[in-house]
Design goal:
Elements: E1 5-9, E2 15-16, H1 20-31, H2 41-50, H3 56-63, H4 67-86, E3 91-92, H5 96-105, E4 109-113, H6 118-128, E5 136-138, H7 151-159, E6 168-172, H8 175-184, E7 188-192, H9 199-205, E8 209-211, H10 217-221
Parallel strand pairs: 1-4, 1-6, 4-5, 6-7, 7-8
Antiparallel strand pairs: 2-3
Helix pairs in contact: 1-2, 1-4, 3-4, 4-6, 8-9
């Protein structure tokens, strides 16, 4: 069956995470009054690791008692992550750019998605010189729910004129990425081992394939 669209996650899948999310979270939760020595911090960090890939404002709403604190932490997270990107700590997963270019050259459309806010997604793409690399870049917002909901994948399907969700492949490094692909009806839902998820976690989430890297995705599609 022909693949018309590939939907790829950013951090951990096509972009090296290297602890940047945890560092930005530490700064963010500190702005809400929870330091690294606070007894609440380990459980909060565990929740962040367990929900990697999901919309960050949703994560902070689950952790903090008020909307004001959640919004404050989310704003600080985006600022801290943007600072890390600006400092040059954002690098592509080896081979990711070549995979995206190869897919598009072969007539497959590519969408890049994230759980970050749109401004952070754009900062990452700018830092990597990827603004025009894919056909579409999507983040939660404007009525789109983040992972594990299917909204980002289905928005890409609609905007890029895909004829059938069974012609879609999704790849990401977290169980949330896998659940998003499955709920959207994608034929291929691949977990990759370059980010947060383990082989066991991705398999348990229902991944159709578990790959060492996004570099292996074209072989699955073929």
């Amino acid at each position: 069956m022909t693949t018309e669209l590939v939907v790829l996650d950013l951090a951990g899948t096509t972009v090296v995470d290297d602890g940047l999310v945890v560092r930005a979270f530490t700064a963010a939760i500190g702005s809400a009054g929870v330091s690294e020595v606070d007894e609440r911090f380990p459980a909060m960090l565990a929740h962040v690791n367990a929900t990697m890939g999901q919309s960050k404002i949703t994560v902070f709403r689950a952790l903090l008692p008020t909307e004001e604190l959640a919004q404050r932490a989310n704003t600080e997270f985006e600022r801290a992550y943007a600072d890390l990107v600006a400092a040059g700590e954002c690098k592509p997963v080896p081979g990711a750019e070549e995979v995206i270019r190869g897919l598009r050259h072969g007539g497959v459309k590519v969408a890049l998605t994230t759980g970050f806010a749109p401004v952070t997604q754009q900062a990452i793409l700018e830092a990597l010189g990827w603004r025009d690399l894919a056909d579409l870049a999507l983040a939660p917002g404007e009525g789109r729910r983040g992972r594990p909901y299917p909204d980002l994948v289905l928005t890409a399907v609609l905007r890029l004129g895909v004829t059938d969700v069974r012609h879609v492949a999704v790849a990401g490094d977290t169980p949330s990425d896998v659940r998003t692909g499955l709920s959207a009806g994608a034929r291929v839902v691949a977990g990759v081992l370059t980010g947060a998820g383990t082989r066991a976690e991705l398999t348990e989430a229902g991944a159709t394939h578990v790959l060492d890297s996004v570099r292996d995705l074209p072989d699955v599609l073929d």
